[in-house]
């Protein structure tokens, strides 16, 4: 479960807005005229039973001051999130380096328990919409598109002379074992078959028989390319060349 914090608008000046930090129990660095020693607080953020890992969205003046203050208060900064633009990413990398974090351009790439937006409200809305769309795409891959893959697999069975009903019955035990392996071992260790072995000849024969149905072949090629990209595969270069020539 992740918590999202943002600072309410207290005016355009960063100095005024930083006053909010003290209301959240986090002390900030005082100007040189007030004190040369930064104050450090060990209090919790409201509603937190233990100090969470933090991801900061933004790397401007406000986000920088807040990030440094949180680190001084004992919070672990996991990541600084920025736009993919060169200038924004450079600021994020600089700030991340100051607090021992990493710079990222995607909220989904971090596992922080608390996400704090140090950006204007308009930017928050954009980030939230992007995050929501990415989560929805993830869910679509996990269920509806997975069902579409099963329907595609039934069509491959028809090419092998097995009707769809019988194919479904035979596939269920295989699918159950595949999901059990994924749950217990993860994708890398749960992956099996000719692609991970680098069996170029077998993959070539698959592509030849799938020429009978271009849509089935396209799905096979797309998934095989995903395997080459995300999973440990032997004979990667020969397999890439084979897939590249599959449409010839």
The CATH class of the largest domain turns out to be: Alpha Beta
Task: Report the span from N to C terminus.
Answer: 49 Å
Which word captures the global form? elongated
Query: Could you tell me the radius of gyration in angstroms?
Result: 25 Å
From the coordinates shown, what is the CATH architecture of the largest domain? 3-Layer(aba) Sandwich
Strand order of the largest sheet: 1-5-2-3-4
What fraction of residues sit in β-strands? 5-15%
Contiguous runs where pLDDT drops below 50 for at least 5 residues: 7-21, 28-43
Number of spatially distinct domains: 3
Class inferred from helices and paired strands: alpha/beta
Number of strands: 5
Number of helices: 11
Considering DSSP H and I runs of 4 or more, what fraction of the residues is helical? 55-70%
CATH fold node name of the largest domain:
Rossmann fold
Q: Mean pLDDT score, rounded?
A: 81
Entry summary:
Helices cover 56% and strands 9% of the residues. With 248 residues, the protein is α/β, with parallel strands linked by helices. The chain folds into three domains: 3-138, Rossmann fold (3-Layer(aba) Sandwich); 143-187, no CATH class; 191-248, no CATH class.
